[in-house]
Specification:
3 copies of one chain form a homotrimer.
Chain A: E1 2-10, E2 13-18, H1 20-30, E3 34-41, E4 46-52, H2 56-69, H3 86-96, E5 99-105, E6 108-109, E7 115-125, E8 128-137
Antiparallel strand pairs in A: 1-8, 2-7, 3-5, 3-8, 4-7, 5-6
């Protein structure tokens, strides 16, 4: 069986917003015992990822590294119509991905103790981000 | 229910080929209302990704960055049997991934307005690339 | 239908361990003809990936590049409670991902000839890593 819901995250600025709780709420509404939970973001300048949920310095260090992986305002970029963060945001999204998927077992997300699901806003300013959760299970 | 089809993309050289249309055609043939569309490439020197589908300079800038992430012919590489682009291609494929998956809703791929699905050829010369589309839905 | 099993990989040190065979064994036990095989690791300092399975120098070169993508003991890191490899491990895991998924056809994993599924331990020392395989098919 398939259960699908959308929700919106309004980001404030570049950085991560945890979405584990709203995803878990969708899973709870399915009543499924086992399956796979697919989480997808419908944009190309933000991404979804699973990372450490305890120490916020992990997310700050990921920002530091992302600035090296795809620097803002790099002189080599041809695509800069929306500012210094435009191309960097697309590249950061390609490196970290548009979806995550997590097993569902005994009616719950089977995340590890230290795993959280995060929306990573890569643009400098906040945006309205649409997330689609599709649960396939029984 | 599961519906599965394969198709071939013959790449000409390093760079991206959009595959959104052939994937959408498979989805249309399923007749499913909702589900998840899984797209997989059976090779380790190309990848599948979702990125911006409007301005081609985004894809050109991604090539520029990929050359930094995994330079061709780096003197540190031990693996160079097929040329300067051999190890770089494997590394670019690891960073950007072997599959993408997209929700299916109301019988269609639920991509955002600016999202396209691309096959990224990482070898200098073209290859015959086999893509498997598996749709799980109802 | 959904079939789910867990298994443990005890890593010895940083590096890759192939897990294609234990994943294929789960697939064989399902008896499904077609579907998608989802493989997930419940930790944030190792990752799952699909890469070249023939020449071990590919995996050694990936280690060399990963050290550039997220250097051990970088002076910019704020998160270093568990040592020089701590933050590097989280970043390497974010770049390479927590899950892979592979199509299932005619009762088998539809990997390409040169594709293997690997657990990549990113910590310097070995750990007990839990992997969840969820097969959705029929």
């Amino acid at each position: 069986m398939v259960h699908q819901e959308n929700f919106i995250v309004s980001t404030v600025r570049r950085g991560m917003t945890e979405v584990t709780d709203p995803v878990a709420a969708v899973v709870a509404r399915t009543g499924f015992a086992a399956g796979v939970v697919h989480v997808f973001v419908r944009h190309t300048s933000c991404s979804l990822l699973i990372t450490e949920n305890a120490d916020p310095t992990v997310r700050r260090d990921l920002e530091t590294l992302a600035q090296r992986w795809a620097p803002d305002g790099d002189s080599a970029y041809l695509h800069d119509t929306e500012g210094d963060d435009d191309m960097a945001a697309h590249a950061r999204a390609v490196l970290t991905g548009t979806s995550v998927s997590v097993p569902l077992a005994q009616g719950e997300l089977l995340l590890g103790t230290w795993q959280g699901i995060y929306l990573w806003e890569h643009r400098s300013h906040g945006h309205r981000r649409e997330i689609v959760v599709t649960v396939t299970g029984e």
